[in-house]
Write a structure and sequence with these properties.
Length: about 375
Amino acid sequence: MSLTTRAAVVESGGAPFTLTDVELDAPGPHEALVRMVAAGLCHTDLGVANGALPFPLPGVLGHEGAGVVEAVGSQVTGVAPGDHVVLSFTSCGRCRNCHAGHPAYCATWLPLNLTGGRRADGTHTVSRGGEPLGGHFFGQSSFAEHALVDERSLVKVDPDVPLESIAPLGCGVQTGVGAVWNVLKPEAGSTLVVLGAGAVGLSAVMAAALTPATTIIAVDRVPERLALAEELGATLTIDSTEESVPELIHHLTGYRGADGVVETTGNVGVLSEGVDALAARGTLVVVGAPPFGTEVSLDVNGLLAGKRIVGLTLGDSETQTFIPALVRLVREGRLPLHRLISTYPFADIDRAVRDMTAGKVIKPVLTF
């Protein structure tokens, strides 16, 4: 039996989110029906809503959901009705990268999560008035009071942790943390630079503070965010509107450069500066996602000192182990995610979008 629920629908690129009733399909064998409690708003949602990233519209977005399982498909074994879950990306579970513990690089990641708008078998999960809508966004489409969620998007979590405090773990936070822990893996005495002090960048700062890195430099244009970065673990900050970032980083590191850089802005000029700021054999992790087709120009000779540029999706995380570990850190106060979160009633989703776009808030979380 299908279910009627309230969802935020984007009719076309550049259109606002409109609350309307939609119909969810009955859970398939490997799906669960989740009553949403909270959902983080991410720049990827805004990119799709603005038409900058491909996804079939009209459709239902949302990919940082958290809620309570209400029903499960016939072959779901990992969760049961009543379980608290964080929703993350989905994957096939069968390809080489999935088997190797790298589901964020699943062979079918793009159509399953971002561009397809439907299940892998081509069927739709959500419709309106008998017409199919784009759905299955990151295996969830969680901007709705109920979501039909792919089994591999579900992560069972500690029911004692408020779901609105951990919804952003599904994408932005695990991306920033994973850039540091899963890719850079700082050694004792390392210098790390985080370009951009938004939700992903500040998550990277918090993650770096839990490593042996001794110098953590946050770079941004907003003084208030730089001040927050210092409170969350940055040992130094740089206002990029006032100083040359590569020159200052080299000066601050005794003209050695940074061992690791996390680029979160999606600005290719900032990315180029990050490469220039690297030490010999240093690594820059590309997290920020500009529109498809964006290119960056680099001096090839500048890379010959062993510099590496690594692209990153969703922190290269294995969600079933990574997200519960992050939940524990949040519960114990060691990952103070609440410092980033501002909550909004679901009905105020457009106000949350405006505030996020204006830089008034770092991580809006919708509550249901």
